[in-house]
Amino acid sequence: MLSKKTKVKYTEKKKKSKYPMVSFQIFDKWCKRCGICVDLCIHNVFMVDEDGYPRAVKPVECNVCGFCITRCPDFALRILERGEKNAQG
Ligand code: SF4
Ligand code: SF4
Q1: I need a surface site. Which of 19, 58, 62, 83 has the fewest CB within 10 A?
Q2: What is the pLDDT of residues 30-80, one digit of tens each?
């Protein structure tokens, strides 16, 4: 057991992005769940949800390279500008 002096508090510091913070709009109706956007993103911004749809779980890592939106065959993905609201609600 650790003494009081050696106890360390593990608190994850809020990660600061070196890129502009973005958010994503994913049109599930158009998305065919091919996973291209998930596989292409080298920053692992997306994860697949239980239904197979991509979800932006780490938008703070996005460098806005645009690969995901330009390679989506169904135009089902877009990057929202700062302050822009997700039209899907
Ligand atoms: S814009 Fe680039 S970094 Fe951002 S989620 Fe898409 S592929 Fe990843
Ligand atoms: S690339 Fe487009 S169609 Fe494929 S999973 Fe991503 S959003 Fe859906």
Answers
A1: 83
A2: 999 999 999 999 999 999 999 999 999 999 899 999 999 999 999 999 998
Q: Is the CB of 56 under 6 A from ligand 2?
A: no
77 lines ligand 1 (CB under 6 A): no
Would you state the structure tokens that stand for residue 6, as one six-digit string? 């050696």
**Helix, strand and coil in the chain, % to nearest 5:** 15, 15, 70
C-alpha to C-alpha distance for 7 and 11, rounded to whole angstroms: 13
Residue nearest to atom 3 of ligand 2 (CA): 31
Give me ligand 2 centre to Cα 15, in Å.
Answer: 27
User: If you measure from the C-alpha of residue 73 to the centroid of ligand 2, how many angstroms do you get, rounded to a whole number?
Assistant: 7
- Domains, the chain, ordered by start: 23-80 (3.30.70.20)
pLDDT beyond 70 at 86? no
Higher-scoring residue by pLDDT: 51, 88? 51
